[in-house]
Amino acid sequence: YAPWCPACQQIELTWESFAKESEHLDITVGKVDVTQEPGLSGRFFVTTLPTIYHANDGVFRRYRGSRTLEDLQVYVLERKWEAVEPVAGWKSPSSIMMHGMAGLFHLSGWIRQIHSYLTGTLGIHVWISYAIFILATLLIGLFLGL
Fold first, then answer.
1. How far, in Å, CA of 102 to CA of 77, rounded?
2. Considering 1, 3, 5, 78, which one is annotated as catalytic?
3. Which UniProt keywords apply (predicted)?
4. What is the pLDDT of residues 109-128, one digit of tens each?
């Protein structure tokens, strides 16, 4: 979820109720703020918000059903998750590919922090910051090419 997401705000009370019922369902329910954990959102390849995953014994399935409390409970109680195809091996959060994707998301956050430092703290104009990143990209490419 993300705090600014209207769909996430809409499901928030339902999700909290589901989390309270989790002990009776013998499951653990959690939520992750993708603005605070960009690497995790990259690892799970989150492209829409909110995104719900069911994980059991290291197998991940994306939940795409109705987002009512009753439907979430039925999904678990009646083991409807067994009929859902697991996330493909290469897209699994534990795969090397998704580990690399998490790294790219961390890199993008680091670049955003540098840009904010250059423009906010140092007062450099936005376009000059862009020019610095372009120059750095070219120099790194040249260095790696050598």
1. 32
2. 5
3. Disulfide bond, Electron transport, Endoplasmic reticulum, Membrane, Redox-active center, Signal, Transmembrane, Transmembrane helix, Transport
4. 889 899 999 999 999 999 99
